[in-house]
């Protein structure tokens, strides 16, 4: 009896567990299979948690279109889409959001809606869908290279014809411009690009979305992860096993890949599926030590360097009142003399503050780029101060910054009662995707200077057989052992990168590559 081929999957996130599930259920024990995970939990960038006795998502939140989504299919089949408890479903953001601008004005929807219509139409155009709204804007997309300047020319073309009333120090045009910036800030959190001028325009039309509603998962995103992991026998998934070096490319017949772990242990494997994030790969090729030995061939490391990978974080705050409205936040320009200097810079590109469901005391905001990184460094007190100052300056609402329960106004003691007129923040929880060495950011995007081809290059297994470059240490092409290092993860999917379903498909792809290689068909 020959030894079973040993497959080690690095990372127990969506891609790694999908690959493990597929390999296990289709191979009838042909393989010696393990999943090594550097962290102390499974799920990776899926991190369902609890805050203020509510179920919340620190990472992946939405099923981006239920039509045809494999994540939706699993969530539905496992009964994860229903729950007796309320969950982070954002049911009060749709249609009911109120828009406030710096200076303390609420803006009428009749001003916000045309700008939102324009923004959405421009993004649809960038994504290759025709629409009537922007037809009149004349060729603005012809020479577009990045999403940021494309949006700017779209807005400029649209605005040349406007007039109408403003509010206070706001002219109508400056107001519309600020509202447009707010939608652009939402786009920063969708893409993780700190600056939309670094987001490649051409790639935008390659990105695919599923049709249908976007929903969250009532029992938590992690229920999909648990379902995938549930078929694997005990011991297949190994937690707290961080890989520090991947030696590959030797001519050895058995176990040509050697994995070094942070505890000094060593495992050899026939095939390794690397699912670590693009951020971890970037760090892995930049550091002197290097995650790969020999270093990755140029075609691979160039793709890793060129593609974009940004930081997006979520901030949850528990407030003293229920039925807080969903707010859209419109800030003045950086160079405006009318700005409230007390609002910290890291709040100024936050587009919304909204309860996670209509009866919740938990409010959620999304942060991207520099602001998201700064959020990770702030103390809870700084965050409370910044959020409350922002709410006060935009809505005129009375807020209270200390968290103790001393008398508020003369005679009236704050007792944590829901009906308090004065808004307080009682608790804070934030994600930390940027600083965590197992992630180093949130998700990938096609940066200016890269393209969909780089995403395909990310997916190519090593060594590259019969192609120049990438043979590793084996100099005899005929002896080279195939499929030593394989790559899965959201950053390896050309049209669904950045998503959980992209990660899912990439896991299936690499599992099936191996099943085909071994002619397994169970
Ligand atoms: C804040 C946030 C919001 C998001 N929102 C959405 C959303 O609404 N909808 C959506 O579809 N997607 C969303 N995403 C993206 C989605 O979460 C990811 O695309 C997807 O989960 C990535 O899965 P993956 O398997 O490719 O990578 P990961 O989940 O990162 O899995 C890789 C695993 O490798 C482990 N690892 C790293 N280094 C090592 C090492 N050296 N040794 C061993 N193990 C290691 C990590 O701990 C991790 O568990 C969001 C992500 C974030 C951060
Ligand atoms: C799976 O493997 C077992 C043991 O090797 C064998 O008896 C069985 O027939 C196999 N199943 C299929 C479907 O081939
Ligand atoms: C696009 O570029 C071409 C060539 O430089 C130029 O002739 C054309 O006017 C540009 N189109 C727009 C809409 O700017
Ligand atoms: C505060 O309350 C006390 C006792 O009820 C009263 O005598 C006093 O005038 C109040 N002060 C103010 C500023 O309202
Ligand atoms: C995952 O969630 C836990 C809370 O349950 C939190 O402590 C941790 O920081 C989260 N991970 C990241 C990377 O944000």
TrEMBL record:
SUPFAM superfamilies attached to this UniProt entry: FAD-linked reductases, C-terminal domain (SSF54373), FAD/NAD(P)-binding domain (SSF51905)
Pfam families assigned: Amino_oxidase
Domain Amine oxidase residues, every copy: 14-515
InterPro entries: Amino_oxidase, FAD/NAD-bd_sf, Flavin_monoamine_oxidase
Top-level lineage group: Eukaryota
A molecular-function term among this protein's GO annotations: polyamine oxidase activity
Similarity remark: Belongs to the flavin monoamine oxidase family.
Name of the protein described by the UniProt record: Amine oxidase domain-containing protein
Highest classification ranks of the organism: Eukaryota, Viridiplantae, Streptophyta, Embryophyta, Tracheophyta
């Amino acid at each position: 009896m020959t030894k079973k081929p040993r497959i080690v999957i690095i990372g127990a996130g969506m891609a790694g567990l999908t690959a493990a599930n597929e390999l296990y259920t289709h191979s009838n024990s042909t393989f010696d299979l393990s999943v090594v995970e550097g962290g102390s939990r499974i799920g990776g960038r899926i991190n369902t948690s609890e805050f203020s006795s509510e179920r919340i998502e620190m990472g992946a939140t939405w099923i981006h279109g239920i039509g045809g989504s494999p994540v939706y299919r699993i969530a539905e089949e496992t009964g994860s889409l229903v729950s007796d408890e309320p969950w982070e479903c954002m049911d009060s953001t749709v249609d009911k959001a109120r828009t406030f601008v710096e200076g303390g004005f609420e803006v009428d929807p009749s001003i916000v809606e045309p700008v939102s219509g324009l923004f959405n139409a421009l993004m649809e155009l960038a994504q290759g869908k025709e629409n009537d709204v922007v037809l009149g804007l004349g060729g603005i997309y012809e020479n577009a290279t990045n999403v940021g300047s494309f949006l700017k020319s779209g807005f400029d073309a649209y605005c040349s014809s406007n007039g109408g009333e403003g509010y206070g120090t706001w002219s109508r045009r400056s107001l519309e411009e600020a509202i447009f910036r707010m939608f652009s800030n939402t786009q920063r959190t969708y893409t993780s690009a700190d600056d939309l001028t670094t987001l490649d325009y051409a790639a935008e039309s390659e990105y695919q979305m599923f049709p249908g509603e976007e929903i969250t998962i009532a029992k938590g995103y992690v229920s999909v992860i648990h379902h995938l992991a549930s078929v694997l026998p005990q011991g297949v998934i190994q937690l707290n096993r961080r890989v520090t070096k991947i030696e590959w490319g030797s001519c050895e017949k058995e176990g040509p890949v050697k994995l070094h772990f942070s505890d000094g242990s060593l495992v050899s494997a026939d095939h390794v599926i690397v699912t670590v994030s693009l951020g971890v790969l970037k760090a892995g090729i930049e550091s002197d030590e290097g995650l790969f030995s020999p270093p990755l061939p140029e075609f691979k490391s160039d793709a890793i360097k060129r593609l974009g990978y940004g930081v997006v974080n979520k901030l949850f705050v528990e407030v003293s009142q229920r039925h807080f409205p969903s707010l859209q936040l419109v800030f003045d320009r950086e160079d405006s003399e009318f700005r409230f200097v007390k609002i910290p810079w890291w709040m100024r590109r936050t587009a919304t503050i909204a309860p996670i469901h209509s009866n919740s005391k938990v409010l959620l905001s999304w942060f991207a780029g520099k602001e998201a990184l700064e959020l990770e460094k702030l103390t809870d007190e700084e965050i409370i101060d910044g959020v409350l100052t922002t709410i006060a300056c935009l809505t005129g609402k009375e807020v209270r910054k200390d968290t103790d329960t001393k008398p508020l106004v003369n005679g009236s003691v704050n007792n944590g009662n829901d009906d308090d007129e004065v808004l307080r923040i009682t608790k804070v929880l934030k994600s930390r995707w940027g600083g965590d060495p197992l992630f180093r950011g949130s998700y990938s995007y096609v940066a200016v200077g890269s393209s969909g081809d780089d995403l395909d290059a990310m997916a190519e297994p090593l060594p590259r057989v019969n192609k120049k470059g990438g043979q590793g240490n084996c100099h005899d092409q005929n002896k080279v052992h195939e499929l030593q290092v394989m790559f899965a993860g959201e950053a390896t999917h050309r049209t669904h990168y950045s998503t959980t379903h992209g990660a899912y498909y990439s896991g299936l792809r690499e599992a099936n590559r191996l099943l085909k290689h071994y002619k397994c068909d169970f």
